[in-house]
């Protein structure tokens, strides 16, 4: 296992980057704790895979260093970094059996035959492929091949880190849940440093100890799932995490009050925001409908089982509220009230705290 330090790291695919938009990965300084499980979460094209490939050694950064346990590995090839990486699409040897595929990383390093057999059997059980161990990989389904690829990544116990690049894309939904559970069990048993790239918030929030949210080549927040939900540091985090995501409205903020299109919204603290674009954000879980708050029109109601989503219109801006089961659907003249303590204030997309400019 290893502590992984990213020191002044940045990358551009252009030979002579000029403006900020030329950098696929903006400058980053971060420490991945030894033995922790992280998820790299963000939309397609935000820089997740670029960062993972730099950590693994498949890509050399334009600037900065990567350190494993304080040793500089920036110039080392992938093999010298002692990591295992699982890619989005399966990488297997079709002419080998499932057993031979799983054993290959251990045989390649001269492991003892008895240990290899025991370890392969354990991994086969983990990925639910005990009955196919002696079948050739050729002809197996795409999700079966991806399970083999996943198993090969997990078969070694001595790696510095396990890196997963959207490894469950081709896996059926039920098996995705099972494999995420097994990955967490593997982490708890062996304490590997794990980094799991995904654009799926459910995968990220159920797998990781900490989630690293990326947007436009930049890390915008690192935190536990609870921290990302309760205190989004950036409007993208609020929007991207949650279903539906955070409601955001342009506002003027002074003291304990925000003014939104001439209407007052109470806040949970006193603010003195600096100049810039000011917005308030509140999650749909903290919006209630009644006779106080912003005047809204209910455009539709969506029943999603445990609750209903009220889609609202406020002077051309879309808002969402969650209605518990049994609460009647409001009629005309309804207003949306925000729970003051759950309202965040953002300046130029970054969260500010009460009383801090």
Automatic annotation (TrEMBL):
A GO MF label: ATP binding
Keyword Cell membrane set for record: yes
Transmembrane segments: none
Matches recorded under Pfam families: ABC_tran (PF00005), OB_MalK (PF17912)
Ranges where the ABC transporter domain occurs: 4-241
Keywords attached to this entry: ATP-binding, Cell membrane, Membrane, Nucleotide-binding, Transport
InterPro entries on file: AAA+_ATPase, ABC_transporter-like_ATP-bd, ABC_transpr_FbpC, ABC_transpr_MalK/UgpC-like, Mo/tungstate-bd_C_term_dom, NA-bd_OB-fold, OB_MalK-like, P-loop_NTPase
UniProt family annotation: Belongs to the ABC transporter superfamily.
Protein name: ABC transporter ATP-binding protein
Organism listed in the record: Roseovarius ramblicola
């Amino acid at each position: 296992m290893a502590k992984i330090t990213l020191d002044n790291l940045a990358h551009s695919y252009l030979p002579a980057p000029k403006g900020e938009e030329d950098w696929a990965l903006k400058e980053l300084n971060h420490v991945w704790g030894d033995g922790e499980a992280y998820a790299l979460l963000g939309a397609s094209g935000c820089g997740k895979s670029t960062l993972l490939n730099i950590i693994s050694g498949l890509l050399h950064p334009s600037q900065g260093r990567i350190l494993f346990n304080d040793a500089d590995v920036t110039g080392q090839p992938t093999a010298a970094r002692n990591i295992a990486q699982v890619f989005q699409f399966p990488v297997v040897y079709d002419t080998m059996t499932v057993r031979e595929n799983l054993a290959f990383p251990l045989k390649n390093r001269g492991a003892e035959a008895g240990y290899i057999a025991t370890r392969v059997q354990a991994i086969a059980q983990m990925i639910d492929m005990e009955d196919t161990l002696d079948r050739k990989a050729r002809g197996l389904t795409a999700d079966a091949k991806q399970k083999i690829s996943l198993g090969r990544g997990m078969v070694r116990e001595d790696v510095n880190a396990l890196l997963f690049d959207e490894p469950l894309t081709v896996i059926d939904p039920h098996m995705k849940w099972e494999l995420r559970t097994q990955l967490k069990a593997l982490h708890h048993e062996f304490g590997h440093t794990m980094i799991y790239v995904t654009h799926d918030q459910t995968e990220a929030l159920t797998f990781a100890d900490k989630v690293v949210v990326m947007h436009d080549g930049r890390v915008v927040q690192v935190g536990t799932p609870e921290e990302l939900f309760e205190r989004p540091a950036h409007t993208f985090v609020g929007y991207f995490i949650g279903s539906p995501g955070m409601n955001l409205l342009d506002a003027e903020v002074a003291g304990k009050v925000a003014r939104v299109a001439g209407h007052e919204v109470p806040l949970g603290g006193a603010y003195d925001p600096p100049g810039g674009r000011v917005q308030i954000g509140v999650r749909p879980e903290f919006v209630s409908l009644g006779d106080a708050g912003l005047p809204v029109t209910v455009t539709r109601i969506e029943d999603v089982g445990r609750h209903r989503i009220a889609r609202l219109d406020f002077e051309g801006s879309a808002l969402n509220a969650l209605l518990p089961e049994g609460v009647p659907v409001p009629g005309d003249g309804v207003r949306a009230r925000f729970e003051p303590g759950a309202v965040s204030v953002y300046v130029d997309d970054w969260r500010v705290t009460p009383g801090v400019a």
